[in-house]
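To: structure subgroup
Subject: Chain for Friday's discussion

All,

I'm putting the inputs and outputs inline so they're searchable in the archive.
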Amino acid sequence: MTADRAAAALTDDGAGGLTYRGSRYLLVRPETLVALQKAIEAALGERGAACLVAGGRAGGGSALQSLEGSPGEIVERLLAMGGAIGWGEFTLERLDPDELVVTVRNSPFTLAYGAATAPVCHLTRGVLERLAELALGAPAVATETACVATGAARCRFAARAR
């Protein structure tokens, strides 16, 4: 999707609301979200990641409600939407009956986070976990198997049916 097409899908309601294809969105700088993430991690340690994944699952679930088609079509549409709204360039690596694998280039979260010893894209992981549940037709668990913040060329997520 081009920037012009993405901008055409944005609507200002004149009362402080912004919608993308009919769903409410909020423009927030990645540094703001990363500062929140780091504060949560400082307060909760490893449990902080679970909180952020839960947020990603909630947002992903809401986004999926506006998409129609087969599971494969919905996967493609959500990945395109992620790029259109600035979450990075999503590429579907594999969609099998029991696994969804996606890579992300240019993630705003890794760029804002900086160097880390463990993967940091918890919000994206939550969105993809929820997407995998729809695509696989079963509860799923997603893992970030590579992260730019840890030195990888791209972030990579693998979600498998539980």
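Points worth raising on Friday:
The domain at 30-161 is CATH 3.30.1380.20 (Muramoyl-pentapeptide Carboxypeptidase; domain 2).
The longest strand covers residues 89-96.

D.
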